[in-house]
Specification:
Elements lengths: L150 E3 L16 E3 L4 E10 L5 E10 L5 E5 L6 E3 L6 E5 L5 E3 L2 E8 L2 E9 L2 E2 L9 E8 L1 E7 L5 E2 L4 E9 L8 H9 L3 E7 L2 E11 L4 E7 L12 E8 L4 E3 L10 E5 L1
Parallel strand pairs: 6-12, 14-21
Antiparallel strand pairs: 1-2, 3-4, 5-7, 8-11, 9-10, 10-12, 13-15, 15-18, 16-17, 16-19, 17-18, 19-20, 19-21
Length: about 400
Amino acid sequence: MTALIVRLRLTGADLGGAVLTGPADLSAADFTDANATGAQLSSADLSSATVENTDLDNATVTGAGLAGTDLTTAQLTGLTDANLTEANLDGAYFDDTTLTGVTWSDTTCPDGTNSNQHDSGCNSPLNLTPPVAHPYFPASEVNGWFNAPATVDWDWSDAGPLNPALCPATSITTGNGLQTLSASCTDLAGNSSSDTVQVHVDTTRPAVTLKGVMAEGHYALGAVPAACVTQEPVSGVGQPATVHFSGGRDGVGAITVTCSGAISVAGLSQPAPVQTTVTVGYGFGGFTTPAPGAGVTPGRSLTVRFELTAGRSTPIGSAAARSLAKAHDIRAMLAGPGSAPVTAACSWAAAGRDFTCAIRLPAKIRTGHRNKYTLTAEENVGTGFFPVPSGRKAANPETISFR
């Protein structure tokens, strides 16, 4: 039921907790010495009411009309913690009123100004200064770079109340490289300001390419030309990827070549290692018999001698050589016109530190320097026979002819 009170005299009345919400007409009512603690007076018309020495502690007068209301000496407990949101206090007297904890929001002040224009309610100075930003980044940088979208907290401050809807709390980057973030803020008094910060952002990861070798290719021990190429176009390369070899036995056999360890200046690592598998064998030290390009007198067999290396210039060790020869994993092959290729297993000659092979010659060998034959040294390091990788000074295969 709507309360209807017309020009009441409520001197000394006890209205504690009273509910007088809605369009209650309390205009010109006399609340002198009354107790209105916790009263619900929302939207009531209290214009020209007398509230001298009136206890309005915790009263709710949201939207109430208080035009011309006399609040003089309401300091007994005053308006402590009262809610004056949208209340009209035009012409009211605040000279000795206790206003501790009052909620001011869009309140019409006694002088006709809006409480939002003041630093802290109607009884404080007018807010004439714009908001100030104190931007900071909660996340940490790495070498001056953010490696994820960067969020700036603007941390606005103002002499008076801010308008949250017009003062964004944070901004976040959306790209890479040098990023500019800007924001503006308007307080309830209408004062505005803006601020700008710049940050470096790199959310990309290094791109790594393995070059120099082919998958399933054959290479000499100690001369695998693998190389890692690292690219990072935004923050740059902080640490390039490096080559690692794994697998096989004593460095030969099926070897996994891996490029890993790349890190950008911004601190992001490459997405995953880059790998391929190659076959690494012993290197070729050259044919000693017959000499390259030699003209050979045909017979029942052809003696072939050659050397293997375990590094660029290091001869293969005797133990490894004997093991290869015993397993028939070193052989020589003759190929040329008039017959199918023929092969022969090789033995290890410790005295000469080379391999010796006796190839049985086909019945019909074509003679003359125009009939070219090739001699190929082959090895098997667990992946099947393949030509021994040749070095810079030793070709495999070599070319000969029969005279």
